[in-house]
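User: For my dataset I need records formatted as: sequence, then structure tokens, nothing else. Please produce one.
Assistant:
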Amino acid sequence: MSVHPSAIVEPGSSIGAGTRIWHHSHVRTGARIGAGCTLGKNVFVDTGAVIGDGVKVQNNVSVFSGVTIEDGVFVGPSAVFTNDLWPRATSTDWSITPTLVRHGASIGANATIVCGVTLGAYCTIGAGSVVTADVAANQLVVGNPAHPSGWVCDCGRLASRASDRPDELRCDRCRVPA
């Protein structure tokens, strides 16, 4: 584990081997971060947040309580996760609404993930999108609110612009035999 001197890692957090935590990041007590992760500048990981192995979280991302990120996920710069469906500054009556990001998913820069959704394995969330509903595995969504725009290969490249999930989800490059 490598932690920049300006970062705060509270006692009682769990950080896996080989994880790198950069400038001005803050990991709270009770947060769990897997092995081989990279947390960019100014990343906040809250109590109860879970980040799997091999996850890359770019600069200025907050992973709040209730968010679970599985292995191999990419979270682009300034992406936003929420955890309260009915936020009020003066209310003490609030509850965390869980969000699940399945393995291999990619979230573009400045995307907003509204709590209570599941992002499927290897899906791609376009930059600036606002996700308000579940996203299927390998699905590409874009816009506000995010809507289906195609399907991506596990490698992340576009496999199809079809609205229905194709039988084969491999891009032209991965379809070619080695």
